Amino acid sequence: MSSLRLLHFENEADFIEALRPHDDHAMNFALGSLLDNLDRSQAVSQERWGDHSRVLLGIYMDNDLLVTLTKSAARIPWMLSAPSDVDPLKLKERIIETMELLVTFLPTVVDPNTVDKIVGLKDIVDAFIDAWIAFMASKHVALQSPTATFTVRACYATRSTIPQSQPTLFADNIGLVVDMDQAEHLIPLAMEFSKHGPNPTTSEGARHVMREAIQSKRLWVCRLGEAIAGYALVGRITPRTVAIRNVFVLPDYRRRGIAEALVHATTAFYLNTDSAGDGVPDMPKTQVCLQVADPAVERIYKRCGFLIDEDAKDPITGKSGCFISVFRGIVPAM
Fold it and tell me: Which InterPro entries does the protein's record reference (predicted)?
C-alpha cells in the first residue's frame, strides 16, 4: 500500500508552487484565501482576520497531493481541501490515516485551542473533527462539535458551460466600478449581504472592502438611473480561477433578473480572452467559482452556466462540477 506523508510548508511561496498544478475550483478556497491575505492591496480589510499565524500543511500519498489543511490568519477558519484530481475512492480508503496524521501533528505547531472552526469539503471536515475530538479525548480534553452552522454548494463555470447568448436585459446598466466615491453608497448593501453569512461586517469593515475592491477592479454594480440596485464582488483570485464572493440586490429591485444579469456579466468577463484589455491583470481565467448557500437561487446560477447539480460534470474534463462545503465549530463539551 502506498505510504502517506505530511509536509509542513514553512513559507507561502513553496505552498503556492506546490498547489500550482492543482489550481482549480477544488483548491480555490484554500489557495485563493491565502493569496487574498497576502495581497497588499487588501491589507486594510484583511486586518480584521488578525495576525498572520499561517499554517500550511499537505498530506501526500507517495508524490500525489491528497489533502491540504491551511490557516491563513489568526481569525480565519482552518480550511480543508482536496484537489479535484484525487481519486475519491482512494481518499475514502485512506481518510482515517490522513486525519490521524493531521491531528497528531497539529499540536506540535499550534495551540490546540486555536483549532475551533473548520471549513471545507463536508466528508473531509466531518472526518477531521471526529479524529480531532478523539485525539483530544486521549489527552483528557472533552470537545464536541455542533451540527454544521453553514452549508454551501461549491460549484464553477467555464467557457464551455456558459450560455452562448448573454441576456440583454440590464446589460447596459452593469459595469466595473472605477469611481472611489461610490464606495460610500455600497456600504449598506455590503453590510446587509454579510448578515446572511458566518462573518457579519461593520460599516467600517464594509468601507474598507468596497474601497479596496474598487481600487483593484473587483467590484461590479447594476445602476438604474442614479440608484445602485445591486452589486457583485469577486475575490480569491488565483492564476487560473476567480470566485464570485458576493451577489446582492436590494429588496426593491428583486425579481427583475438583476442578480442573473450581474452573474452573467462577471462570469463572461473573467472567462473572456479579450478581458485583459480592460486593465484587469492575469486574464482570462479558466474557471469562475461560486458558493451557493440559498437553494432558492440555485436556478439563477444554473442558467448562468454553473455546474450546480450534484451529478453535473465538466463537459471537457468529466470531473464533478460541485461539492458540498460546510463550516463547523469545535467547542468544549458541556
Answer: Acyl_CoA_acyltransferase, GNAT_dom
Based on its alpha-carbon atoms, the radius of gyration of the chain, rounded to whole angstroms, reads 20
Q: Which fold has domain 162-303?
A: Aminopeptidase (3.40.630)
Same fold, 4-152+324-332 and 162-303: yes
Q: Are 333 and 134 in contact (CB under 8 A)?
A: no
Q: Which residue bears the cell 447539480? A: 309
How far is CA 206 from its chain centroid? 18
Q: Which H or E run includes 289?
A: strand 287-292
Give phi and psi for 144, each to the nearest 5: -145, 160
Q: Is the dihedral of CA 37, 42, 47, 49 positive or negative?
A: negative
Locate cell 448593501: which residue?
189
Query: Amino acid identity, residue 24?
Result: D
What confidence tens digit (pLDDT) does each residue in 137-165 have? 999 999 999 876 789 999 999 999 998 77
Tell me the domain boundaries of the chain: 4-152+324-332, 162-303
DSSP conformational letter for 234: E
- The grid coordinates listed for 211 are 474601497
Pairwise CA distance, residues 318 & 273, whole Å:
23
CA atoms within 13 A on the CB side of 290: 28
What pLDDT digit, counting tens, does each position of 91-144 carry? 999 999 999 999 999 999 999 999 999 999 999 999 999 999 999 999 999 999
Residues whose CB is less than 8 angstroms from the CB of residue 23 and which lie 6 or more positions away in sequence, other chains included: 31, 238, 239, 240, 241
**Beta bridge partners of residue 327, listed in sequence order:** 119, 150
Looking at domain 4-152+324-332, its CATH architecture is 3-Layer(aba) Sandwich (3.40)
With beta carbons less than 8 A apart as the criterion, state whether 72 and 37 touch: yes
